[in-house]
Amino acid sequence: MIRPIVCRWLRAAALALCLASLGAGQAPPNPSEKPVYFNSEIRPILSDACFTCHGPEEESRQGNLRLDIKENMFADRGGYRIIAPGSSAASRLYQRISSTDKTSRMPPASTGRSLTPKQIELFRKWIDQGAKWQSHWAFDPPKRPAIPEVKDKTWPRNPIDYFTLARLEAEGLKPSAEADQATLLRRVSFDLTGLPPIPAEVDSFIADPSTDAYEKRVDQLLKSLHYGERMAMQWLDLARYADTHGFHIDSLREIWPWRDWVIGAFNRNMPFDEFTIEQLAGDLLPNSTLEQKIASGFNRNHMINFEGGAIPEEYHVEYVVDRASTTATTWLGLTMGCARCHDHKYDPIKQKEFYRFYAFFNTVPERGLDGYEGNAVPVLQLPSPEQQRQMDDLNQQIAGVLTAMPEKKVLALRNEWQKTRITTLPEPPREGLATYYAFNGDLSDAFSLHDGKLVRGEVGYEDGPTGKAAEFRGETEVSLGQAGDFDLHEPFALGLWVNLYGLKSGEVLQKRDGSEHWTGYELGFDDVAYTGRHQRSLRLVVRLAARWPDTAIEVRTRNRVPMDAAHHLLVNYDGSGKAEGLKIFVNGEPWETEIVKNVLRGAFHTSASLEIGNKNIGGLFQGQLDDLRIYTRTLTDTEVENLAVHLPARVLLTELAGTPAVEIATLQARQTAARRRYRRTGESREQGTETSAARKAAPGPSERILSEARRAREVQTALLSVGRTQKGTRQARKVDHHEHGHGGDVEATRHIRAGPR
After folding, report:
1. pLDDT tens digit sequence for 260-278
2. pTM of this structure
3. CA distances from residue 532 to 92, 500, 537, 557 in whole angstroms, order as listed
4. What is the C-alpha to C-alpha distance for residues 559 and 25, in angstroms, rounded to an integer?
């Protein structure tokens, strides 16, 4: 049997033919006097000859007369009517179009338009028949017309045949002879698959003596994959499908997965409501599948430009207009795009309504200029079924590891603190932690699969703020893969320890493509200043760009960060797409920033790797990096302080716990050396011009961590009992007393500030 969807389409097509032939549901014509229908015969003449001066355009309207509105045409105009139903003689419209006086005849000769005698006669008949007004058929609810009477009652086999035959008999025609079986099979094969039947199929059909041979063959054609291809052809045209972008050099793009989804939808006989919903909002459905997200590619079929000199925002608007107009044309059958510049002249659409509809399609995180190297963002990763199975297996393994690993770490940490009675320091924030590089001797990622890879040079490992730190010597480049993979509306936090001692100006971290007008983000320094032979400082800069420099965010600190000292840097981005959504913290404190650029329109997502030490203005990065953490959310001020202040203290005190007294002197020597190495850690002022007195009054983070850690170590020394000598304990207490006086206790650990050990 023919499937329901095909029957519905055939019935719809037949209904449209019947409505057209019968004047949108009017009674069948009387053979003795053929009725005149407003929609099919009168309205087209008015539109062509009269609407220029008496239509919807207010600026060119003459005589305050509109012939496109029922109320205006039939109103009493002070003793006369434009249309007097039933009397053409009393109708001013007929009087003027039939006048022999050239000065009174409408339309005027100056317009270059005129009515033929046949058209004038149509107006007379229509008015004398009652001048029945018809609204546009597209806005009338469909009505099932009565089946017409026919003379040859043996010919029709279904209701549609009656309408076809009635029209033929009205025109004095007879149906063609019935097609033979081979012709019938050829026709239905072309209709349903777009392909002719092969000879074997023709022979099989002709040889089938059953009464339902045709129905069986139709079912076979509907099961063919070519059926979906044939039916998708018209839909792809409606959706403006193309394999190229359409502008400039017309570069290639890959949107064929959406094409294949459409073909599959027809072959699966998907209900039309689902077909509609998934294409308009498949990605917004709860727990949407990959297939439903692919379906929403309907609205990514528009042309995309990347020509040099073009204005990104101009084309961004064009893309949104295209989506709104195409959706309206495809599903509503309306030329809504006409209301882009003014109220629609013929359809009931206001300009305000168009832009309300426009707003639904103005939420795509795209760029005005894109597509030079393939698909325009945003893009969807489409693994094959086999790849998806492998990814699912790996995700299950990762979930198991992530579930087990934190529990082990928490248990070990708890045992350690219980043993040493250090319970006052909060743990680093873990919620939303997606990537964590400790740099304790390697480039492994403790929380995901983004282990770093050495691109060139070598990475050294030296003592840093939280243990070992990775040292880059100006000849090293490291790729962290797809770590830090974020987009326009995805909040994130990125924090790390940085000690610069060779960078003039450039990036520390960057995730951006290699083009001149790059896409992605970067964290770096610029505007180097020299305030003495040994004092150098730079401004911290963060940039997010959909296409640099045309559409980008750039924010930099007003104060400068001194070089040759370790600082904890953290960037919070709230996903707003605004520069105001970028916050910079240095050593746990929020720093005031200035906005350099704030015109980010579209996605800054890129498939490029997150990199350290890539080429920049001042050469390859020279310095130390430690404890790089990337979160899929923004951090609170307290959480930032935990990373910058309490984490180094935790590392120091953990190392001290359980250490024999004979090693205390070695630790003290290391701390003294570290203090000398990071002596220029005072919090910087504008242009780095603070005085030595100011530095003493406001010690930097490393100064605070060293002094406060000594107070905490006094408590630790009292708690350590294994292998400690009375002499070692007195020495430790003496040093602490000399630096800070009496009263050191565990509470002091609450106030330790950030800095190297």
Report:
1. 999 999 999 999 999 999 9
2. 0.53
3. 96, 17, 10, 21
4. 78
